[in-house]
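Changelog entry

Holo records now carry the ligand SMILES as an explicit input line rather than a separate metadata file. Below, a converted record for coenzyme A, shown in the new format.
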Amino acid sequence: MGDLIIRQAGLGDAEGIAEVLQEIAAAGKRSRPSDLSFATANYLTHPDQLRCAVAVRGGCVLGFQSIRIAVEGNPYGAPVGWGVIGTHIRPSAARQGVGRALFRVTLEVAKARELAAIDATISRNNAEGLAYYSAMGFVDYRSHHGAVCKSFTVD
Ligand SMILES: CC(C)(COP(=O)(O)OP(=O)(O)OC[C@H]1O[C@@H](n2cnc3c(N)ncnc32)[C@H](O)[C@@H]1OP(=O)(O)O)[C@@H](O)C(=O)NCCC(=O)NCCS
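Structure line, unchanged by the conversion:
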């Protein structure tokens, strides 16, 4: 099966990231765009991006985690200066510790950037997403429009 490698994503990972999004969409867990240009613009070249880490095994991108800086007027309504996190793992690789491994790396980035906290905004109906962020130590701090916002305080 090979080792799980966590590394910073580069432009060459756009296809792998899009494939992860498409597998999640095919499983009925995503309705937002999942194409190559969306993957590139949202996770690889976005101006607010601090880091996008990919989890790779045997040359296959199993999942990725992005962290952005919350700027004035950010669409998540997160406090300015916080990190905003997003995590996507192929359903075929779920519950194998990939998300946990990615968060270890993202947290190091948050510490290095001296972020006060990280926001995770999750649909109220997304039980696995809510359970994952709770398991990583995030706690509820507000909710809006069918979403639950969890925060992680960076020490
Ligand atoms: C939610 C998601 C990121 C979890 O990633 P993952 O790699 O499967 O998570 P891990 O295997 O590292 O699990 C870490 C912990 O999270 C919790 N967890 C993860 N998935 C869970 C599930 N389906 N049900 C209950 N708890 C879950 C568990 O506590 C787990 O620890 P354990 O397996 O030792 O009990 C992944 O399922 C996913 O990408 N889902 C679709 C996209 C999404 O909803 N993203 C999150 C909102 S942006």
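Spot-checked after migration. The helical segments are 14-26, 36-44, 98-112, 127-135. The mean pLDDT is 97.
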